[in-house]
Amino acid sequence: MSVGILGTKLGMTQIFDEAGAAIPVTVIQAGPCTVTQVKTKQTDGYSAIQVGYREVRPKSLNKPKLGHLAKSEATSLRHLREYRIENSSEYSLGQQIQADIFSAGQIVDVCGTSIGRGFAGNQKRNNFGRGPMSHGSKNHREPGSIGAGTTPGRVFPGMRMAGRLGGKQITVKKLTVIRVDTERNLLLIKGAIPGKPGALVNVVPANLVGRQK
C-alpha cells in the first residue's frame, strides 16, 4: 500500500480541456497532513506511518489522544489514519504530507462516507419498480411478497426491504486526477465521490492489477 492523504470534499465544478470538452471534477482540500507515528518491523512487526488531519481545539480531544500527538509535537488533530508502506524510514515525526504527492493523470481510489438519507422505502433504497397506478390498484409503493408461506415459514436473511439508506463507507475506485494545485493543496478529481461538501475523504493511489492500457 502507498501513502495517501486525508482531505475535505469542497464540492463539484467543471473544467475544460484543450479540445473544449467539459470535464466534471470534484475539488478536494488535500491536507496538509502531519506524520504522527512511524511504525517499523522491528518495533511493531510491520512498516507503516500514521498521519493526522484537521486541527481542532485541544479540549475537543481526550487525554490519551493528546498524549499520543504530543510525542510527535503535532497540534490537536481530529482524524488519524495509517498507511502501510515498504520502508517507513523515509518519513519522520512531524513531517508534512501535502497534495504534491499526487500528479495529474494519476489513478486514485477515494474513500468517504455517503450522504445519509434516513429511513427510506423499498423503491428509493433498492431501486425497485412501483406497482400499477391505475384505478383499483392497492399496490402503488408496497414491497410485495417477501417469501413463501408455511414453507419455509420465515423471511430469508438479506431480503431487500425498507430501512436506513446511506451513511456508509464507500470507496470509488480508479478515478483520474485532472489537476493538482500545490499552492493551495487542492486536488481536482474527475467524477463524483461520496459525501457532502465538508465531508472527510481519504485519497490513496489505486492498486492497479493486470494489464493496463
From TrEMBL:
Gene3D superfamilies (alphabetical): 3.30.160.810, Translation factors
CC terms in the record's Gene Ontology section: cytosolic large ribosomal subunit
Keywords annotated in UniProt: Ribonucleoprotein, Ribosomal protein, RNA-binding, rRNA-binding
Pfam families with a match to the protein in the record: Ribosomal_L3
GO biological process: translation
PROSITE patterns: RIBOSOMAL_L3
GO molecular function: rRNA binding; structural constituent of ribosome
Region (Disordered): 122-154
PANTHER family per UniProt: 50S RIBOSOMAL PROTEIN L3 (PTHR11229), LARGE RIBOSOMAL SUBUNIT PROTEIN UL3C (PTHR11229:SF16)
Alphabetized NCBIfam families for the sequence: L3_bact
Function: One of the primary rRNA binding proteins, it binds directly near the 3'-end of the 23S rRNA, where it nucleates assembly of the 50S subunit.
Family designation: Belongs to the universal ribosomal protein uL3 family.
Assembly information from the UniProt record: Part of the 50S ribosomal subunit. Forms a cluster with proteins L14 and L19.
Identification of the protein by name: Large ribosomal subunit protein uL3
Organism: Dulcicalothrix desertica PCC 7102
